[in-house]
Amino acid sequence: MIREVHDLKNKERADHELKFGSFNSFPPNWKPIQEDDFWSTFMTYSPILQEYRQMYPVRNDDPSRRDHNARMTVAKLFYFGRDEGLAMVEVVVNARKVRPQFFQFAACEHEWRHTGTPYNCYNTYECTKCKMPMAIDSSD
Prior knowledge:
The structure is a single chain. The protein has 2 domains: 3-109, no CATH class; 110-140, no CATH class. The relative contact order is 0.17. A hairpin with a 2-residue loop joins strand 7 and strand 8 (122-127). It is of the alpha+beta class. The chain contains 2 helices and 9 strands.
């Protein structure tokens, strides 16, 4: 079973909110994606955490506050490794729920730099922004 954000311990939850914002905020680097891109990732990788959010945009006159007079965005967020995730947003038109919209988000928009090939077909990378490591084994 996937863990819920509200089940995180106090420190874990505080760290999570530093990276991804709180219940009423959009996570960083929030971007729409196509439905097939959502399902391709969702069915290939397993989410490690999920969260229900009711999000409001920031206020124009004070970006540190939410605009609770704006339309609320209701979403289910799914978190994967590398501080990245996907979301489904409930769309309501004339009081009827219609097909969801799909989004991606990430704590960092990674820019990978190749750092080496320690052995055949195994490549290592590091994000130039957040220093997160990544390795890819391209052998069969």
